[in-house]
């Protein structure tokens, strides 16, 4: 993976990320840092405290020190890179920023005793710019702290990485083997013109068309597809293909195939007609599979793909081994 921004943003609110504390948020709320949408701006729009910004903005410091914001990742994982985006902050961006990270177990309210490590050293920033900082730390983190020196506004903090699921939340349960939060990901697809196929694997229901995966209109007689690497090798028992919000651009039909550890493909759901704006659920059986390919005919959008099933024993061991290797 060369472009870390293709990895899920572990901090984004729609994956459960939360800005839990900040040194100051006088001008604009710390929570904006993890908004899923691109930063917006309307010039000459003043509230009682100043110009309104879709970001986190602190007061001008007059007595030294620096500002910070603490973010709990929605999904714990290995961070591969961070984007510090000063979009629209032109005369009030911080000249420098750094990022630290830590891992804690459970839900502690006080992180002062946590073992913080620097994952982005203090680095210069420009105004109105998305700064990408690759991160080289082969370990699991649950929280990050964004520091800005000395003060100012940052629109977004994106923390891209690989989800590392907690084996205690999967062992012995029937789970969604295609869920991003369980460690699944789309590894290949035919088209991502309008939106990322990983959107299909997000938690909850899609609220609009943009929250799903949508391909361009095909004119070549072919069809679109996406391959999901499952959270772990498992057996699928129920497939959900949700076309919610796709009223005039749902695929006409879809099929599912599973790939076993030897690389052979097996039918899981035969090609089946789909309706627009409908949550279709099918009882299915599958052999032990590591990947599932969704074929949609000919093109269109899928709001959510859920593959409920059971981890194999080897799959459960793999999840536990990865967690143990990456936790500190
Ligand atoms: N025009 C501004 O944006 N001024 C300031 N910020 C806000 N939000 O008004 C400032 O000085 O940092």
From TrEMBL:
Q: Catalytic activity, per the record? A: allantoate + H2O = (S)-ureidoglycolate + urea
The protein's UniProt keywords, in alphabetical order, are: Hydrolase, Purine metabolism
Q: In which pathway does it act?
A: Nitrogen metabolism; (S)-allantoin degradation; (S)-ureidoglycolate from allantoate (aminidohydrolase route): step 1/1
Top-level enzyme category = hydrolase
User: Which GO biological process entries does UniProt record here?
Assistant: allantoin catabolic process; purine nucleobase metabolic process
Q: What is its EC number?
A: 3.5.3.4
* Entry's Gene Ontology molecular function annotations: allantoicase activity
Q: Which residues form the Allantoicase domain?
A: 16-163, 183-310
Q: Which domain of life is it from?
A: Bacteria
What is stated as this protein's family in its record? Belongs to the allantoicase family.
Q: What HAMAP family is this protein classified in? A: Allantoicase
NCBIfam families, per the entry: allantoicase
Give the protein name, as stated in the record.
Answer: Probable allantoicase
Q: Which organism is it from?
A: Actinomadura meyerae
Q: Which gene name belongs to this protein?
A: alc
């Amino acid at each position: 993976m060369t472009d870390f921004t293709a990895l899920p943003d572990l901090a984004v609110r729609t994956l459960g990320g939360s800005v839990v504390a900040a040194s100051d948020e006088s001008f604009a709320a710390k929570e904006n840092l993890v908004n899923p949408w691109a930063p917006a701006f309307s010039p000459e729009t003043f509230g009682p405290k100043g110009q309104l910004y879709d970001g986190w903005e602190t007061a001008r410091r007059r007595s030294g020190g620096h500002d910070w914001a603490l973010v709990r990742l929605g999904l714990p994982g290995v961070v591969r890179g961070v984007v510090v985006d000063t979009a629209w902050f032109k005369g009030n961006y911080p000249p420098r920023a750094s990022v630290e990270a830590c891992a804690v177990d459970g839900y502690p309210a006080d992180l002062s005793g946590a073992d913080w490590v620097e994952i982005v050293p203090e680095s210069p920033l420009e105004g109105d710019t998305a700064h990408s900082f690759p991160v080289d730390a082969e370990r699991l983190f649950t929280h990050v702290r964004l520091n800005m020196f000395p003060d100012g506004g940052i629109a977004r903090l994106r923390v891209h990485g690989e989800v590392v699921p907690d084996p205690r939340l999967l062992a012995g349960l029937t789970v969604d083997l295609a869920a991003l939060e369980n460690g699944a990901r789309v590894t290949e697809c035919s088209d991502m013109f309008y939106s990322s196929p990983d959107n299909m694997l997000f938690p909850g229901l899609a609220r609009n068309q943009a929250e799903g995966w949508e391909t361009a209109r095909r004119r070549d007689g072919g069809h679109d597809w996406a391959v999901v690497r499952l959270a772990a090798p498992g057996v699928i028992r129920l497939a959900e293909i949700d076309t919610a919000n796709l009223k005039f651009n749902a695929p006409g039909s879809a099929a599912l195939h599973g790939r076993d550890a030897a690389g052979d493909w097996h039918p899981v759901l035969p090609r089946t007609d789909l309706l627009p704006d409908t949550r279709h659920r099918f009882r299915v059986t599958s052999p032990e599979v590591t990947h599932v390919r969704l074929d949609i005919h000919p093109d269109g959008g899928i709001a959510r793909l859920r593959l409920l099933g059971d981890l194999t024993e080897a799959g459960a061991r793999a999840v536990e081994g990865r967690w143990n290797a990456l936790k500190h």
